[in-house]
Amino acid sequence: MSDAASSTAIIIGAGHAGGELATSLRNEGWSGRILLIGDEVHLPYHRPPLSKAYLAGTTAAGAMLIKPQAAYDRAEVEILSGVHVTSIDRSRRSVQLADGRELEYAKLVIATGGRPRPLDVPQASAAAGCDNFHYMRTLDHGERIRAQFAAGRKLVVVGGGYIGLEVAAAAIQQGMQVTVLEALPRVLQRVTAAELSAYYERKHREAGVEIRTGVQVADLEVDAANNTVTAVLCNDGTRVPADLVVVGIGLIPNTELAAAAGLEVDNGILVNEYAQTSDPDIYAAGDCTNHPNALLGYRLRLESVPNALEQARAAAAAINGNLKAYASVPWFWSDQYELKLKMVGLSQGYEQLVLRGEPQSDSFSAFYLKDGKVLAADTVNRPQDFVAAKRLIGESLPVTAEQLADDSKPLKELLPA
Ligand code: FAD
After folding, report:
1. What is the C-alpha separation between 334 and 315, in angstroms, rounded?
2. Is 226 found in the same domain as 142?
3. pTM exceeding 0.70
4. Is residue 331 part of a domain?
5. Which domain holds residue 94?
């Protein structure tokens, strides 16, 4: 290994985690070369607005960069954009690029995120080549979808998760005819209680979205001559005509590079609390990792911006010999219509749901309780409840259902000074 290579840190993936890592590495004291390699042609950008403000037309692509080029220049981060990393050779401590180059590293970080889970139906590959059939992960996806949004057009959204519902909200507000097809009995079933699902289904229906739950997509009707999908075919025999289709049915973590290099992978690249993989010179951060969380007491893989950023910072610190365990309470957000939903914690295994405030007022919170402690909270237009819930969960503070439900007293009164 050359002198330069022996002080080179390479980051694969220029998304939320990769971009944060690159500058954090420098701030934490890395004095060697830092190379950020991403296969998208853009500098790292904010992904959440893709299904929110960007689709609504209120944010432009240029405004979505996480940091300007100047910030990377200042940190002396070299960025290789539009370049795919094809393999990692751990014995040579190098990565191979699609353009044939080989680059050596002293420390490597894998921040490859994930890709949309493809629809598994007979005509899926024919549809993938159609102009009006879309997944939603990248700015390029967002651009294509936005260009096809027009009043009166029929949009079919496959998947009633956050991304699908955000796309539906943006579309109906632009005068489109929107149908959401969800396979499970209710929207947001994997992430929220039935009360929240019912609330969101009602809000969408009031806005004019047709929500159909418990319905599986059986196939797509493809007009090969015109290169378009003309309808979505459901297993109950119904045909839903479409001018465009957006599929949002989950994510597959990009772990193949790590697995092929012999790193341990199990629903994500396995890392420790310092974001280190089973190879001490290779770290990983973001959606592609499966990490332990000491606060929760188990391993998990998260798909959220706060996770990507905080894990990236933990990796940057650890690479510089400064061990700061990553152990945050997970949190997420979703914007639909005028509703700002912020969620904190994970509700699996909860025993009791407590509502604070009235859903009818569009300002309320739902707390998921177990053994007198809050596991998670969903807060709708209630930033103050979110802040308090984050502490109740993070500090494992005891509370009663009555205290949480009593909307006449601020939640902060339940917190130690
Ligand atoms: P990414 O941001 O996906 O970055 C990974 C990058 O690595 C990509 O650019 C990818 O192309 C690149 N890459 C992969 N393989 C290679 C390779 N071999 N060579 C080179 N480059 C490679 N989270 C929230 O917290 N709140 C939200 O409201 C929210 N809304 C979202 C809305 C949408 C539409 C989407 C798609 C996601 C949303 N998320 C939200 C999730 C959030 O964006 C992700 O959790 C976050 O982007 C994860 O960051 P990451 O760096 O791990 O992955």
Report:
1. 27
2. yes
3. yes
4. no
5. 5-115+252-319
Tokens for 401, please give them. Answer: 């259902």
Report the separation in Å between the CA atom of 411 and the middle of ligand 1, taken as the mean of its atom positions: 34
Q: What is the pLDDT of residues 309-350, one digit of tens each?
A: 999 999 999 999 999 999 999 999 999 999 999 999 999 999
Instruction: Give the number of the atom of ligand 1 that is nearest the alpha carbon of residue 86.
Output: 18
Q: Are residues 13 and 108 in the same domain?
A: yes
Residue 332 lies in a domain: no
Distance 364 CA to ligand 1 centre (A): 30
Report CA(264)–ligand 1 centroid distance (Å): 21
- Domain endpoint, select from 222, 249, 276: 249
Spatial contact of 172 and 178, defined as CB atoms under 8 Å apart: yes
Tokens of 103: 């680059």
HSE-CB for 271 with a 13 A CA cutoff: 34
Q: Which of 43, 47, 329 to mutate to test the pocket of ligand 1 (most atoms within 8 A of CB)?
A: 47
Which atom of ligand 1 has the smallest separation from the CA of 334?
28
Please name which of 137, 113, 117, 138 lies closest in space to residue 288, comparing C-alpha atoms: 113
Measured in Å, residue 287 CA sits from the centre of ligand 1 at 7
* CA 414 to centroid of ligand 1, rounded, Å: 36
Cβ atoms of residues 254 and 279 within 8 Å = no
91 and 24, same structural domain?
yes
Q: What is the pLDDT of residues 6-49, one digit of tens each?
A: 799 999 999 999 999 999 999 999 999 999 999 999 999 999 99
The DSSP element (H or E) to which 256 belongs, if any, is helix 256-260
Here the CATH number for the domain that contains residue 130 is 3.50.50.60
Q: Which residues line ligand 1 (CB under 6 A)?
A: 12-18, 37-40, 47-48, 50-51, 84-85, 111-113, 136-137, 163, 254, 257, 286-288, 303-306, 308, 332-334
Cα–Cα distances (Å) from 172 to 153, 156, 234, 245, 401, in that order, read 10, 11, 22, 14, 37
